[in-house]
Design goal:
Elements (H helix, E strand, L loop, with lengths): L3 E5 L2 E5 L5 H7 L23 E7 L18 E3 L5 E2 L10 E3 L3 H14 L17 H9 L18 E2 L4 E3 L9 H10 L4 E4 L6 E4 L11 H6 L5 E3 L12 E6 L8 E7 L2 E7 L12 H5 L14 E4 L2 E4 L2 H19 L4 E5 L5 H14 L5 E2 L13 H5 L14 E6 L3 H4 L1 H12 L3 E6 L4 H5 L2 E4 L5 H18 L9 H9 L3 H8 L3 H13 L2 E6 L1 H6 L1 H14 L8 E4 L6 H6 L11 H9 L5 E5 L3 H4 L1 H8 L1
The structure holds iron/sulfur cluster (2 copies) and FE2/S2 (inorganic) cluster.
């Protein structure tokens, strides 16, 4: 559809049809003040801060034609003969919008004066002070004085705890409903609501425990006043005192972009950093409030070397020289594989690359791993390297025509912000099909939620592949893939009925999932911890399905693995895995106990703290 032409404060602008006036004005560099409107949520027109004059060409009711004036131009009429809320009014061709007339200014001053009637004006002790839309809009658009009596303000007990981490100051709340709408429409946890009427109108938590959501911290960002604050930042600093450093969350595989806001090198708060292809403007509460681990008092901040059985402080030079000479001696006396390396798969590629060079090129050791040798370790998964989602994949834009199969995974637990991305895909018309042996929140709102038997994941993956191979053959277009014949031979050994029986599902349930996968223009398979624990029996069969159908190697198609580390795929790609003849983490502990492993580099991991066995092996 062609763009719509409008004039805003004398500036012509063309915008896509359906754009609301607030967004259209931004294109014309005109600021319309808003409180309840937020670009990530549907407009509701609650606060009336965005009132503007909207003039449209007058239409003759008899002929339905535009009435022309004597000057040859269309006669204009004020829409509904009153001011309109710009956030809920879509533009139409020929519209003329005025945002600075006396009528508009009068309305803006009035809205702000009313909003402030019961506002406590405690900016000096409010955490939002300095980045508060209410402060800013009052300064730019508000009245200089209020005609209301200061003593007539409504007072509430302040603050109330909505949860262990979120506080509500009802006196500051302007009842814009952003927090309620975020929880309903974006997080999918409808745990907030309104209660009472009139001046007692207030936000409440409807859940037990209170504000039961993994995304609650986001409401403190989008609240346009200091009504919602989080326990992690309350009263720590004024916002103008902090310095923001861009960073990335390492708590899961989403890799949300964030800033570390610090004052005098001390962490004050974590804030989301906008990146539409990763996390938009959201963080989960773990990412926002679970980053203080690096302030641990037990953290080693200076090199320590062991002297007569005791660790004592040293210099970097001394420590590095000792390490270099000790490791060189070990290799000389006991061989290359007597040295090994363990490094966290949450570290960046540069560190992983340098570490691999050190272990394999400098010491010539094949023993390198990013796991800890715990019973919960998962096998190394190459599937995302082969058929991970293609370049330019953007989960923010896909919707209609997209099908995401979520299998053996709970995104809310394992990679929370992916849950928001999946909900976004659904809200734009895409489908999400969940296949799990356990219930998930995502399953409750998914297009289908197939419950398989405990341990039925491998059988399901095989049955899925079998059906996909048949469905692909039925299209008459077979890809020439290396190993396809072997896959077919393997599949022929299993009857579909027995696979379905093991998976605990019916043929119809499987068909629904396969049809959705085959017919979508964008097909993504997302698998998680349960799939990774089982290993190739699930992941490689899913990868084969993607390869055979060609649903990989292009944008918005392929696999997404919810890995344990923030950069497991980077670690795998950079060779942080045992090479031929080398030991994995588990084998390293055995070798250490037997005296074969003499030197171990450990970076970003705490094996002794996580595993008794590792602690004993390191002691040995
Ligand atoms: S708490 Fe904040 S976001 Fe929620 S309704 Fe009040 S002002 Fe709006
Ligand atoms: S979703 Fe994952 S990466 Fe994003 S903030 Fe939460 S833990 Fe961090
Ligand atoms: S921003 Fe338009 S009514 Fe609130």
């Amino acid at each position: 559809m062609p763009d719509v032409n409008v004039i805003i404060d004398g500036k012509s602008v063309a915008v896509p049809p359906g754009t609301n006036i607030v967004d259209a004005a931004r294109h014309a560099d005109v600021a319309i003040p808003v409180f309840c409107y937020h670009p990530k949520m549907k407009p509701v027109g609650m606060c009336r801060m965005c009132l503007v004059e909207v003039w449209t060409p007058r239409i003759d009711p008899a002929t339905r034609q535009v009435v022309m004036g004597p000057d040859g131009l269309p006669q204009m009429a004020l829409m509904m003969n009153k001011l309109q809320a710009a956030c809920v009014t879509p533009v139409s061709d020929g519209m003329v919008i005025k945002t600075t007339t006396e009528k508009v200014k009068f309305a803006q001053r009035g809205v702000l004066e009313f909003l402030l009637t019961s506002h406590p004006l405690d900016c000096p002790v409010c955490d939002k002070g300095g980045e508060c839309p209410l402060q800013n809009l009052t300064m730019q658009w508000g009245p200089e004085v209020s005609r209301f009596d200061y003593a007539d303000k409504v007072h509430f007990e302040k603050p109330v705890k909505l949860s262990d981490v979120i506080y509500l100051d009802r006196e500051r709340c302007i009842l814009c409903s952003r927090c309620v709408r975020f929880q309903d429409d974006i997080a999918g946890d409808s745990v907030l609501g309104f209660d009472n009427r009139g001046r007692s109108w207030e936000i409440i938590s409807k859940s037990e425990p209170g504000f039961d959501s993994k995304f609650s911290g986001n409401t403190t960002d989008i609240c346009p006043v200091g009504a919602l604050t989080n326990a992690d930042f309350r009263f720590r600093a004024r916002v103008w005192e902090v310095r923001s450093t861009p960073s990335v969350c390492t708590h899961c595989s989403v890799g949300c972009n964030l800033t570390i806001d610090a004052r005098q090198n001390k962490l004050m708060r974590i804030m989301p950093r906008e990146n539409d292809t990763v996390n938009e403007i959201w963080l989960c509460d773990k990412g926002r409030m679970g980053q203080r681990f690096f302030e641990s008092v037990t953290r080693i901040t200076t090199p320590m070397v062991r002297h007569n059985g005791k660790l004592v402080e040293s210099t970097w030079e001394d420590a590095l020289n000792r390490i270099a000479s000790n490791m060189a001696n070990i290799v000389e006396r006991s061989g290359n594989n007597a040295v090994a390396g363990l490094i966290s798969d949450s570290l960046p590629n540069e560190d992983l690359y340098a570490f691999r060079k050190l272990i394999s090129d400098v010491y010539g050791s094949a023993s390198i791993d990013h796991r800890l040798g715990l019973p919960t370790d998962v096998s190394i998964d190459d599937a995302p390297l082969q058929v991970g989602v293609g370049r330019d994949t953007n989960l923010m834009t896909i919707g209609k025509g997209t099908s995401v199969l979520v299998i053996a995974a709970d995104p809310e637990e394992e990679a929370p912000v992916y849950l928001l991305r999946l909900r976004g895909i659904q809200s734009r018309g895409g489908a999400v099909h969940v296949v799990n042996s356990f219930g998930t929140k995502l399953g409750k709102t998914a297009s289908s939620d197939t419950r398989i038997a405990q341990g039925g994941e491998s059988a399901f993956a095989l049955a899925f592949l079998k059906q996909v191979v048949d469905a692909q053959a039925a299209t008459g277009f077979e890809r020439r893939l290396r190993g396809l014949e072997e896959v077919r031979q393997q599949l022929a050994k299993h009857s579909l009925d027995s696979l379905l029986a093991t998976a605990g599902i019916s043929a119809d349930q499987l068909k629904k999932v396969v049809d959705a996968y085959m017919t979508a223009s964008n097909s993504i398979i997302m698998y998680g911890r349960t799939a990774l624990q089982i290993g190739a029996a699930v992941t490689q069969n899913l990868a084969s399905a993607a390869m055979i159908t060609g649903k990989c190697g292009k944008a918005n198609n392929g696999l997404i693995a919810l890995t344990n580390g923030a950069n497991t795929i980077g670690a795998t790609a950079l060779g942080i895995r045992p090479a031929k003849g080398g030991a994995n983490a588990n084998e390293m502990w055995s070798q250490a106990e037997q005296g074969q492993l003499r030197g171990l580099f450990i970076v970003g991991l705490d094996p002794a703290g996580k595993s008794e066995r590792a602690a004993q092996a390191l002691e040995a």
